[in-house]
Amino acid sequence: MKIEGSYIVLRHVRFQAFHGVMPQEGIVGGDFDVDLRVGYPLERAMESDEVNDTLNYAALYALVKQEMKQPSKLLEHVAGRIVAAIDNTFPLVTSIDLTLTKLNPPMGADCEGAGVEVHWKR
What we know:
This protein is α+β, with helices and mostly antiparallel strands. It has helices at residues 23-28, 43-48, 57-68, 75-89; strands spanning 7-17, 30-39, 95-103, 113-121. The chain has a domain at 35-41 and 49-98 and 111-122: GTP Cyclohydrolase I, domain 2 (2-Layer Sandwich). Helix 3 (57-68) runs antiparallel to helix 4.
């Protein structure tokens, strides 16, 4: 079997956080959605069935949660911190696809959300 790519994913993880440039966003906060796809060599875990041979998605979630707790004006800044933290914590990561969406943003539009996408590759 030849593996072309393998990934750990977190889909539609919801956070209540205090990111935004409007003063009320720093006071009442808002709801955010995170989608994360992290390239990681899974071949060893596919053979061993051992959590130590993979990127533990609970540890990945804990890292994202920690970064989401830190208020920022810009989602770009939050996304950059998340990508840097993943890169610094998990050296075997080969790529990161991150979508960070502010749900119901205060901009007067009827939309599900607005946000940023980042694709990082080693």
